[in-house]
């Protein structure tokens, strides 16, 4: 019989951290809940940072995630003071300020950060992850004439789309022959890539960026093969890194992919669970461990992790829903659910590619295991609910 | 405001009515329920959502709203959507009474 927990520390003050704190109260934990956040503000919603917020269509108040109901949860916030160590011996979280929070249970929800381009320290070079990043980028885009986006992934494409709307001349540089092909496969990646050209954005594929050059301020981007692209503003959108380094020496198992957890969010250390972008978790849907840097995962996974930590049995032990993410770019709504693997065959389930209004399915061993939709949210909702979790006949590598 | 013919809103389906503020009319087991079409969280059409019982789930971020009250069941939605009265005349024409709360005495 374990001793009852009196204090839980939630390390991470964004979507996953907030939902972990809410889940603790929803699951009737009546002890002390301390939420630690690296950023000096209450949790806010990040997806609009590359879209409506960057376009100045919504203001910062509309990003707020907390509501009046959260003030009744009696949470203790420590913001602007990132955790620097987890001291297992003393069951304490150590913060940058030196403050220590002694806790019986810990939820790791430190999220991820933008992967930087090595050595690019010039003004006008941006990554986009935080509100502060978005404010700085927006200021630069307002005067910028030529934007180069390094990376044709979802963030890069959304920034390109928003910047184009603001009247900026945009070039997207992608190292793969087809953007998004690693996520969507080459056929559907190519359909998405077509959106750039249709909207007056230049796309350069199969191009390796060798350097970002400037004199105080960025001037140009160098590509392999002695090519250069002039730039007033550069956005580096080459992925995210989980915030896990602070766990060095804690005994919590992690690597460059994130904190290793089972499907319930349990780490290898008792009473330490993890959720959201910082995790590399077993997905029962995929039948494999995944890092799901998806908003939906940060919304839902914390409740599961909290259930695990409290030693309760999940009320809903059913298979969790398929991984899901969306992107809005160039007026197109893109949605993906499920788990695609190389070798899955693509088939059009609804509509057609040319109309840019369709649902496509990924078939493996006869079953639809993932779906991607463009401008077809209603029918996507139907297919999303029919996806087959890891077909039993498929060996998982 | 005229919505359409009753037979054009089959069981379990919804229609979107273009207005200053678009409205979605749902047919839940033969009962017509109307709410604001635009999700209170972010821009998405609730008429495209998934209906289960008396709830609709936003097609984009899965915010759920009660079709009778407009109340969200939890995150990500923070605010309710408005509900509207629905009238079906003897000829099967469907009308929405904009901003007259569902169930209010007319």
Short structural description:
Chain A contains 8 helices and 27 strands. Chain A has 397 residues and is an alpha/beta fold. Chain A has a 5-stranded parallel β-sheet, covered by helices on one side. In chain A, strands 9-16-10-11-12 form a 5-stranded parallel β-sheet.
Please tell me about this protein's structure.
Chain A starts with 6 loop residues before the first strand and ends in a 13-residue tail after the last helix. In chain A, the strands form seven sheets. Chain A has a five-stranded parallel sheet with strand order 3-2-1-7-20, with helices on one face. Chain A has helices at 15-26, 68-71, 131-143, 154-165, 181-184, 186-198, 295-309, 377-384; strands at 7-11, 32-37, 75-79, 83-87, 92-95, 100-102, 105-108, 112-114, 125-126, 146-150, 169-173, 202-204, 209-215, 217-223, 227-230, 233-236, 240-242, 254-255, 258-261, 272-274, 279-283, 288-290, 324-329, 332-338, 345-352, 357-364, 367-374. Chain A is of the alpha/beta class. Chain A contains eight helices and 27 strands. Chain B is an all-beta fold and 106 residues long. Chain B contains no helices and nine strands. Chain B has strands at 2-5, 14-17, 23-28, 31-36, 50-52, 55-57, 64-66, 83-88, 93-97. A six-stranded antiparallel sheet of chain B has the order 1-9-8-4-3-2, with no helix packed on it. The chains are: A alpha/beta (397), B mainly beta (106). Chain A binds chain B through residues 19, 22, 45, 47-48, 52, 65, 67, 295-296, 299, 326, 333, 335, 377-378, 380-382, 385, and chain B through 42, 44-45, 47-50, 57, 59-62, 75-76, 78.
């Amino acid at each position: 019989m374990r001793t009852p927990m009196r204090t839980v520390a939630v390390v991470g003050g964004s979507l996953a951290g907030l939902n972990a704190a809410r889940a603790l109260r929803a699951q009737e934990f009546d002890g002390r809940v301390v939420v630690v956040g690296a950023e000096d503000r209450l949790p806010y919603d990040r997806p609009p940072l590359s879209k409506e917020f960057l376009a100045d269509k919504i203001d910062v108040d509309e990003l707020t995630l907390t509501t009046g109901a959260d003030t009744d949860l009696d949470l203790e916030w420590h913001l602007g003071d990132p955790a620097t160590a987890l001291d297992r011996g003393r069951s304490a979280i150590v913060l940058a300020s030196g403050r220590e929070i002694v806790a019986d249970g810990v939820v790791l929800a430190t999220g991820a950060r933008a992967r930087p381009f090595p050595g690019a320290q010039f003004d006008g070079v941006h990554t986009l992850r935080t509100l502060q990043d978005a404010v700085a980028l927006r200021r630069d885009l307002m005067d910028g004439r030529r934007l180069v986006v390094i990376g044709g992934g979802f963030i890069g494409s959304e920034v390109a789309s928003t910047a184009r709307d603001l009247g900026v001349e945009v070039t997207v540089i992608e190292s793969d022959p087809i953007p998004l092909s690693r996520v969507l496969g080459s056929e559907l990646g190519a359909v998405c890539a077509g959106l750039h050209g249709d909207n007056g954005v230049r796309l350069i594929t199969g191009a390796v960026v060798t350097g970002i050059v400037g004199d105080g301020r960025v001037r140009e981007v160098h590509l392999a093969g002695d090519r250069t692209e002039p730039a007033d503003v550069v956005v580096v959108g080459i992925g995210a890194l989980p915030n896990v380094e602070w766990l060095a020496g804690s005994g919590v198992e992690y690597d460059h992919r994130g904190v290793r957890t089972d499907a319930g969010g349990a780490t290898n250390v008792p009473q330490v669970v993890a959720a959201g972008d910082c995790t590399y978790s077993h997905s029962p849907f995929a039948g494999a461990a995944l890092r799901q840097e998806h908003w939906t995962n940060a919304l839902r996974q914390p409740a599961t992790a909290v259930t695990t930590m409290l030693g309760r049995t999940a009320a809903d032990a059913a298979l969790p829903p398929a991984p899901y993410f969306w992107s809005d770019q160039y007026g197109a709504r893109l949605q993906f659910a499920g788990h695609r693997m190389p070798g899955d065959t693509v088939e059009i389930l609804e509509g057609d590619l040319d109309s840019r209004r369709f649902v496509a399915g990924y078939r493996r061993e006869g079953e639809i295991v993932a779906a991607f939709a463009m401008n077809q949210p209603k029918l996507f909702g139907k297919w999303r609910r029919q996806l087959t979790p890891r077909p039993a006949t498929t060996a998982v590598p | 405001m005229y919505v359409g013919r009753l037979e054009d809103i089959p069981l379990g389906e919804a229609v979107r009515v273009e207005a200053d503020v678009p409205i979605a009319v749902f047919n839940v087991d033969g009962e017509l329920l109307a709410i604001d079409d635009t999700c209170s969280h972010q821009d998405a059409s609730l008429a495209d959502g998934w209906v289960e019982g008396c709830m609709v789930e936003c097609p984009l971020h899965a915010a759920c709203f009660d079709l009778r009250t407009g109340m969200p069941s939890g995150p990500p939605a923070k605010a309710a959507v408005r509900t509207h009265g629905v009238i079906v005349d003897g000829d099967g024409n469907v009308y929405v009474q904009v901003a007259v709360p569902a169930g209010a005495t007319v």
